[in-house]
Specification:
about 40% helix; elongated; ATP-binding; alpha/beta; 4-stranded parallel beta sheet; monosaccharide binding; binds 6-O-phosphono-beta-D-fructofuranose; glycolysis; metal ion binding
């Protein structure tokens, strides 16, 4: 390619800026012209596309959010919308794309690259970590550390009042944020969509701990859990244990923001660099992942379809350590 475009799409995640910086600077290193496409696919459809230089990505490696902004674009879902997007890319002479986003964004890229001959390289950017072909997604480490710090604070007040706290974390239909933050904060129960939640078992556990006068009771619930999330769990527990002092806290979008951790900056830098390398080598339609600390290239097709395998042993660890 001679001119490449970079965009961020779907929910933002901390570290996306570090990835943009890596794509722009690596592209410039190879003598490519690099264009920033604003607001994801919406910018492609609306021709919100601007050339970038080294200075455009100065002082952003430490910033959360995305300087290119992001959106979920309905028009790009239609063949007419994609045709307009393609014409806009042609107008600028863009002949390679780097898409930083989650599986929804890659689905769009995959359809687009089947219709038009523009190689697309995906970089996994989502706090949910729900992607196959990579051990890390940009933003997960920061989000999960934000959740851990928040839950630690909740533990202080839970302890002071002898309260049972139910904390809901994000993750859409994946339980990684809940599982990782729950283990790291010593939660008694971690409720995730990947497994069926047994409410009776939780109530029995809480009753037994009440007898032992256990000091702190924390339940971490993934928003996508089959119970319906934190509020629903709170209602169920209050119904069954009317004497328990229960509070529900929904962490929400605080998990999406903030300065990225070292790990997120590092993987974003590596993935951004390798995404451009892929384009230079003539690779088409792959996602750049990291598996066992090595770069791993997965066809976008598979990235969209496969889910990461969930390690059930972690649940056993939760049970044993919280007893
Ligand atoms: O995919 C990232 C994510 O933060 C999910 O964890 C959450 O379910 C969703 O996005 C929230 O979306 P929105 O920002 O549109 O409310």
């Amino acid at each position: 390619p001679t001119k490449i475009g970079v965009l961020t799409s779907g929910g933002d995640s901390p570290g996306m800026n570090a990835a943009i910086r890596a794509v722009v600077r690596t592209g410039l290193h190879y003598g490519l012209e690099v264009f920033g496409i604003h607001r994801g696919y919406a910018g492609m459809v609306e021709d919100d596309i601007e050339p970038m230089n080294s200075r455009s990505v100065a002082n952003i490696i430490q910033r959360g959010g995305t300087i290119l902004k992001t959106a979920r674009c309905k028009e790009f879902m239609t063949p007419e919308g994609r045709k307009i997007a393609y014409d806009n890319l042609r107008k600028h002479g863009i002949d390679g794309l780097v898409i930083i986003g989650g599986d929804g964004s890659f689905r769009g890229a995959q359809i687009f690259s089947n219709e038009y001959d523009i190689p697309c390289i995906g970089i996994p950017g989502t706090i949910d970590k729900d992607m196959a072909g990579t051990d890390f997604t940009i933003g997960f480490d920061t989000a999960v550390n934000t959740a851990v710090r928040a839950i630690d604070k909740i533990r202080d007040t839970a302890d002071a009042h002898d309260r049972l706290f139910i904390v809901e974390v994000m993750g859409r239909d994946a339980g990684y944020i809940a599982l990782h933050s729950g283990i790291a904060t010593g939660a008694e129960h971690i409720l995730i969509p990947e497994t069926k939640t047994n409410v009776e078992e939780i109530i029995a556990g809480l009753t037994e701990k009440e007898k032992r006068r256990k000091l702190v009771n924390l339940i971490v619930v993934a928003e996508g859990d089959d119970t319906g999330g934190g509020d629903e769990v709170g209602k169920m527990v209050k119904e069954r244990l009317p004497n328990a002092d229960v509070r529900v806290c929904i962490l929400g979008h605080i998990q999406r923001g903030g300065s990225p951790t070292c790990l997120d900056r590092l993987i974003a830098s590596r993935m951004g660099y390798h995404a451009v390398e892929c384009l230079m080598e003539g690779k088409h339609n792959v996602m750049v992942g990291i598996v066992n600390n090595r770069m791993h290239y997965l066809p976008l097709d598979n990235a969209v379809k496969a889910k990461e395998r969930f390690n059930k042993e972690w649940l056993r660890i939760v049970k044993i350590l919280a007893s």
